[in-house]
């Protein structure tokens, strides 16, 4: 996290401290969002998913990616404000004017930018995974939990009671945020971005399991963000769909 800066609420005029988050660039270096001190905070009256991202350049490698727009909630009146970020090539901005196109994480992947490079994994010996036949949504969640434990994640937790058939289900473990989608519709772009954001918030890795596969946009975004994608058939054997998933299977947790 960067050093906290004061942000004055435009509604009640109270100052709130805000520290811009630091995100991992595709090159592995931390990418910090440089706030624009000359632009006043704007009250957020409604959310638009496509407008919730801001372009930023990594000072280390020059990649331009898209990251969540900085926001801060007023501790006094509850107003949420959105903070402006310096334009990518603004003078004095870290990495400003740098070349090296390519895209880091975020929407740039949908435009054909390069995906996050996946390190070459070192194989970990383990016994073959024993699949469990999937007949219900509960079976799908249980299978994903078993598979994550087989990969080496410990203390994998799932919600009590039966999962809601129309919604993805959270699985959590130390260093892990996973989503299991037992529905019959392909997982979309927003689902992949949500598990990525949840992972950032928890300082954990995100993984996604789906019964019905993924949209092409979702797969492209997952490649750019380095999110492992798995598809499960009714035999209960998860199959990796991208390089990040292949690397996770090879190296384990």
Question: Explain this structure to me?
Answer:
This is Restriction endonuclease type IV Mrr domain-containing protein. By secondary structure, the protein is an alpha+beta fold. It contains four helices and 14 strands. A five-stranded mixed sheet has the order 10-11-12-13-14. It has a three-stranded antiparallel sheet with strand order 5-9-8, with no helix packed on it. A hairpin with a 5-residue loop joins strand 13 and strand 14 (238-240). Helix 2 (189-201) runs parallel beside helix 3. The longest helix is centred in the middle third of the chain and has 15 residues, at 137-151.
Radius of gyration: 20 Å
The profile of the biggest β sheet is:
5 strands, mixed
Q: Kindly state the mean pLDDT as a whole number?
A: 76
**How do the strands line up in the largest sheet?**
10-11-12-13-14
Number of helices: 4
Proportion of residues in helical segments: 10-25%
H/E topology pattern: EEEEEEEEEHEEHEHEEH
Note the beta-strand portion.
15-25%
N- to C-terminal separation? 26 Å
